[in-house]
Design goal:
By secondary structure, the chain is α+β, with helices and mostly antiparallel strands. It folds into 2 domains: 178 residues, Chloramphenicol acetyltransferase-like domain (Chloramphenicol Acetyltransferase); 259 residues, 2-Layer Sandwich (Chloramphenicol Acetyltransferase). The protein has a 6-stranded mixed beta sheet, sandwiched between helices. The longest helix has 34 residues. The chain is globular and about 60 Å long. The chain starts with a strand and ends in an 8-residue tail after the last helix. 43% of the residues are buried.
């Protein structure tokens, strides 16, 4: 058996009927030219015929007694895995547009996973207009994080449009993690040994961790210095209790547009993503007469997995940044976001890599305690919204000759955080996935539209008109260049 890490186990601890802790991936494919009508049915039959189920797909939860359920959750291999249960075939009603697909994925993502089985499902969805189909896969966050999930699904696909008889996702094994050992013994003794090692490491790193926490405490007292602390964000419509029903929306942009804005404004690509999300949220909350006077904050997962590590499990840290939603001027808003992320990165970079997991647990412990105690959504949030930016494959990929057109992340939400925005790059595009609570955030799909309008506006402010060039680093005045406001529907 394989023992779960502390951060992986925490996702199990906060699982509830209203807050299922699974994440998903939606892939949209174009059928190969000349594909027969039975293409998807035949593909599904081949996929199910391959009974070789690799880790982590073959793992299900095991516990060594009652105490083990609390301190030593582990994985064991399910030797009787039922592929007919885990792999499902659905069809969209006509016209099979993105709207019908979004409704179906929202419903599928609302359903919790069965904890008596391996914690994943795969849905093949036919009937998407323009000769396309979709593949929606979900897996519990205790098994996988965003980076490892993208890498695992990428290994399933091929750069060759002519390759056929490919392995299904659950038969593709991840590369052995760098420096990994054989599966750890899952027992109380082994868990206590792991805790002892963790305590020793934490003692060694204590001075650095103490300095980091002191910086956060200082920043809470002196927000003007630019480092955004936990609990700095206001209580907003995003931060109430959630129900189990989800709503999912998508948006799709050419990556080159984002990169041009990044270069012209001397900002990172992630800064532009935060600006688009913050601007959309500002407009969304203004329309509801619910925009707080203080700026919303974003919790931003940071990958700490080595580039050559193809293993699964959670290996992330967190930084918190301001979205400057209190700033009416777009360029001022972008400037504040740049300053906030710069200070957050500097803060994180002062910690050695070995200390990042311990720092993450310290930083996230108030969030986890809120959820476990039932106080999530009933008090000030640690941060207002989670915004992730996950790098994906740069090349065009295929499965059984079907071209992968787009790939969207479908994430999790919890009490006190009714919205998650995750971006995933693929083959020259940046794909936004908006996952929200259907009841807490009605009309959430408007945010997808508003990010597009925020992108148009920012381009008009900082990029020269076609045929003209502007001095490097110069942006036009927001008051002169801002276009006339759009009419509200």
């Amino acid at each position: 058996m394989k023992r779960l890490g502390t951060l992986d186990a925490s996702w199990l601890a906060v699982e509830s009927e209203d807050t299922p802790m699974h994440v998903g991936n939606l892939q949209i494919f174009s059928l190969p030219e000349g594909a027969p009508e039975t293409f998807l049915r035949d593909m599904l039959a081949r996929m199910k015929a391959d009974a070789d189920v690799a880790p982590p797909w073959c793992y299900k939860l095991a516990f060594s007694g009652f105490l083990g359920r609390l301190i030593a959750p582990s994985w064991k291999v399910d030797k009787k895995l039922d592929l007919d249960y885990h792999v499902r075939h659905s069809a969209l009603p006509r016209p099979g547009s993105e709207r019908e697909l979004g409704i179906l994925v929202s419903r599928l993502h609302s359903n919790p996973l069965d904890f008596s089985r391996p914690l994943w499902e795969c849905h093949i969805i036919e009937g998407l207009e323009n000769n396309r189909f979709a593949l929606y896969t979900k897996m519990h966050h205790s098994m996988i994080d965003g980076i490892s999930g993208v890498r695992l699904m990428q290994r399933v696909l091929s750069k060759d449009p002519h390759e056929i008889n490919m392995l299904p996702p659950w038969s593709v094994r991840p590369d052995r993690t760098r420096g990994s050992k054989t599966d750890d013994e899952a027992s109380i003794t082994a868990a206590l040994s792991q805790a002892k090692d963790a305590l020793k490491l934490q003692a060694d790193m204590a001075p650095r961790l103490w300095d980091a926490m002191n910086r956060l405490i200082h920043s809470a007292r002196h927000p003007e210095e630019g480092l955004t602390a936990p609990f700095a964000g206001p209580l907003s419509a995003l931060n109430h209790r959630v129900t189990g029903q989800r709503r999912f929306a998508t948006q799709h942009y050419q990556l080159e547009r984002i990169k041009k804005l990044s270069q012209a404004s001397n900002a990172s690509l992630n800064d532009i993503v935060l600006y688009l999300c913050g601007t959309a949220l500002r407009r969304f909350l203004l329309e509801q007469d619910g925009l707080p006077e203080t700026p919303l904050t974003a919790g931003i997962p940071v990958n700490i997995r080595p580039s050559d590590d193809q293993g699964t499990g959670t290996q992330i840290s967190f930084m918190i940044a301001s979205l400057a939603t209190n700033e009416a001027d777009p360029l001022t808003r972008l400037s504040h976001i740049k300053q906030s992320t710069r200070r957050a990165k500097q803060h994180l970079q002062k910690l050695p890599r070995k200390a990042l997991t311990q720092y993450t647990m310290l930083l996230m412990s108030p969030y986890i305690l809120q959820l476990m105690s039932g106080m999530g959504g009933r008090m000030r949030p640690v941060f207002n919204v989670t915004i992730s930016n996950v790098p994906g494959p740069e090349e065009t990929l295929y499965y059984e000759g079907a071209r992968l057109e787009a790939m969207y992340p479908v994430s999790l939400i919890a009490h006190g955080g009714a919205l998650n925005i995750t971006c995933l790059s693929y083959s020259g595009s940046l794909n936004f996935g908006f996952t929200g609570c259907r009841d807490t955030l009605p009309s959430m799909q408007k945010l997808a539209v508003y990010t597009g309008e925020a992108l148009d506006e920012l381009e008009s402010l900082i990029l020269p008109p076609p045929g003209k060039s502007a001095p490097a680093g110069k942006a036009r005045s927001a008051t002169r260049a801002r276009r006339a406001p759009r009419k509200k529907n």
